[in-house]
Design brief:
Number of helices: 22
Shape: extended
Number of strands: 0
Helix content: 40-55%
Order of helices and strands: HHHHHHHHHHHHHHHHHHHHHH
Oligomer: single chain
Distance between the termini: 98 Å
Strand content: under 5%
Largest sheet: none
């Protein structure tokens, strides 16, 4: 029977749990005293043998064994393994109770949906409710030893009134190797469908609600059956049990008090009773006993579920709800607060002090703010204050652009962005972008483009005086730096370009090699509107490589 002590600890006070320590039924003393006495007797036997039976050389060997066991006993992770195991068992114990098949929801649904004040209507309601109770009894006698002792056979179930003899014949004629607790639930559904045909259940919505409550009841029965079927893994239980008992077997030897005259470290005091070892045994083995008691709450321990009491309560209450209380309503009358705009129930002298306590209004109800923080601010000022956060701060951009250009084309683009910011603002009228001085084919500033090789255009080796062809690497008229246009000129000349979106795609694995396309040069400044600005490195007008009729970049697609 469940031990209830809730009323004893209703109020926290000094020594509130002390009175619980004197209870015997359901206590740890009743559960553990046999193991405790066996452990203490074994410890005293070894201690007396060491003191009065062993010879001197045997005592020296026993003392070494004691020191060894004491040093290595703590390597067993008792607290870690036992803590997780007990937590698992306690959670499983409470989940099993929440799955108990209680008929309260089902009986209210039957009483509200199955109509008829005549004898047949009463028969429908009582039979439906009895089928639900029969399913719970058949299940509980399969998982609970206490219920099985009460109903050991189906004949006992028939004699108890949960099943008729005709129903027993149908139940036994259905051959199945599995548990048949679900058969009354099927009878319930068939009977509910028959009541719907006869008009006892007035619409399909009521029938649907009745079926949903039955399924909820049956699901609890099924889950309880599966809890009984699927236990905590046996290997986990074995590991915990071996860990606890092996630890205390080692403590029987390792916690012995040795002769202080031998001078062993930590053995300066000689006592007969190991007080803290006994407390450790009480806590750890008691913890294991708690898990042992809760792992199956359908037995006959002091704290196991009162399944027989639940069967009696559920059967009586459910039958009363669907039969005696059907259409049994008290007379409708006005309550005593009918005309009161602020009704309040009275208090006794023991609880009148609650009236002087203010009601809870919320955790921020008593907060105060300074007067200046409670003034509303104009929305225009708020929007102006939020505007700079949408862009990169100017001082950070200046710091980034004023830094020295990095090696390669990225540093050159940064300096070009710092000198000429008009490239972005005029991007809608041209195809120029900041990526034109790189060899990347994936431009992030505008449409993709291709460039003319060095063998075409005015920068052909024969037109520019390139010594040694494409492999020489220097200009005949000056250095490479002198031949390139100035950065400011490039920024201005980049507004019109020969680059076209339909240019060739990059080859697989990277960019086109110089052997395929020739060295890439920027020829965007050749088609500057008006008179094209001549490159500083050109010493003569272009002849063979120059094609002045390419005035429109779109025409280049058809002529390429």
């Amino acid at each position: 029977m469940t031990v209830t002590y809730t009323a004893r600890v209703a109020n926290a006070r000094f020594g509130g749990f002390y009175k619980l320590l004197l209870l015997w039924r359901g206590s740890i003393y009743k559960l553990l005293y046999k193991e405790f006495l066996a452990f203490f007797a074994t410890y005293l036997g070894l201690s007396l043998t060491y003191r009065f039976v062993l010879a001197e050389d045997q005592k020296r060997y026993f003392e070494k064994l004691v020191i060894y066991c004491n040093n290595y006993a703590n390597l067993i992770p008792v607290s870690f393994v036992l803590g997780f195991y007990v937590t698992l068992v306690v959670n499983r114990w409470w989940s099993q109770y929440t799955c108990m098949p209680l008929p309260d929801r089902l009986m209210c649904t039957i009483s509200g949906t199955v109509h008829g004040g005549d004898e047949r209507g009463r028969l429908y309601r009582r039979t439906l409710m009895r089928y639900g109770s029969l399913s719970a009894v058949l299940l509980l006698r399969s998982v609970s030893t206490a219920v099985f002792k009460r109903f050991p056979t189906i004949d006992h179930v028939v004699e108890a009134g949960f099943m008729t003899r005709e129903e027993r014949k149908k139940y036994e004629n259905l051959t199945s190797s599995y548990n048949k607790y679900w058969i009354p639930c099927v009878w319930f559904t068939n009977l509910a469908a028959q009541a719907r045909k006869e008009g006892r259940v007035r619409d399909n919505c009521a029938l649907k609600m009745l079926m949903e409550e039955l399924n909820h009841f049956r699901a609890n029965c099924s889950m309880l059956f599966h809890y009984d079927w699927i236990s905590v893994p046996l290997v986990y239980t074995q590991v915990v049990t071996i860990a606890v008992y092996s630890f205390f077997v080692a403590c029987l030897i390792g916690r012995q008090f040795l002769d202080p005259a031998q001078g062993y470290e930590g053995h300066d005091l000689d006592l007969c009773v190991p007080v803290f070892t006994l407390l450790q045994f009480f806590f750890y083995v008691g913890w294991l006993k708690v898990a042992e008691q809760l792992i199956n709450p359908f037995g006959e321990d002091d704290d196991d579920f009162e399944t027989n009491l639940l069967i009696d309560r559920n059967f009586q209450v459910s039958m009363m709800a669907v039969d005696e209380m059907y259409n049994d309503l008290p007379l409708l009358e006005k309550d005593r607060y009918w005309d009161a705009s602020n009704p309040r129930a009275p208090y006794t002298a023991a609880t009148v002090f609650l009236l002087h306590q203010p009601s809870f209004q919320g955790s921020t109800f008593d907060m105060t703010l300074p007067k200046e923080d409670m003034q509303f601010q104009p929305l225009e000022e708020i929007e102006e204050g939020l505007e700079p956060s949408r862009h990169v701060p100017l001082h950070l951009l200046n710091r980034l652009l004023s830094a020295g250009p990095a090696p390669g084309s990225f540093g050159r683009r940064l300096s070009l962005l710092r000198r000429k910011n008009s490239c972005v603002s005029e991007a809608s009228t041209s195809y120029s972008c900041l990526c034109q001085d790189t060899q990347s084919t994936d431009c992030s500033c505008g449409p993709p483009a291709r460039r003319l090789p060095l063998s075409e255009g005015p920068f052909a080796p024969e037109q520019r005086g390139w010594e040694g062809g494409e492999e020489a690497g220097h200009w005949a008229t000056g250095s490479h730096e002198e031949a390139l246009p100035e950065e400011s000129d490039l920024a201005q000349q980049s507004q019109v370009s020969l680059l076209h979106p339909d240019s060739a795609a990059p080859v697989a694995g990277g960019f086109p090699s110089p052997q395929d396309t020739g060295p890439l040069v920027d020829t965007s400044f050749l088609l500057q509107p008006g008179a094209a600005k001549e490159s500083p490195a050109r010493s003569s007008p272009p002849s063979a490589g120059y094609r002045p009729w390419l005035q429109n970049p779109i025409e280049e697609e058809t002529t390429a």
